[in-house]
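dude i think i finally got it to work??
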Amino acid sequence: MTRVLIVDDHAFIRRGIQAILNSSPEFDFCGEADNGIAAIRLSADLQPDIIVMDVSMPGLNGLEATRVIREANPNIKVLLLTLHESGEILRSAFQVGAQGYLMKSETDHELLRALRMLVAEQVYISPKADAHDAASVLREIPASH
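look at this
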């Protein structure tokens, strides 16, 4: 079973993701955090397989937290969540070590698809991301990512 840590500064987003995870027996909700600092601490304590993390949080944002977490433990995969359709954020997500980029406007099925792709060692980019930006980023990702 794949252990998943959820990080978002909005409790209702965390609860929604948890409910989606609970509907799928292959995923195990192992904890939650509301900021990047707590995400770093919990990732070390809980050793999740995947972290679903919001990009925009007060204090230490999801991009900065992803960089720290992936440097400390490159085995933890990170699926970044965002409301923003920005090529710059998309590119930054993969530069800091994320393996996935999901728009918050996607469906629950798309979240599960993204998680399954990360489990299968594949890179995931939301279909709602700009196709040109996504193609450009995919060309830049090192094979070992």
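The chain has six helices and six strands.
im so relieved honestly
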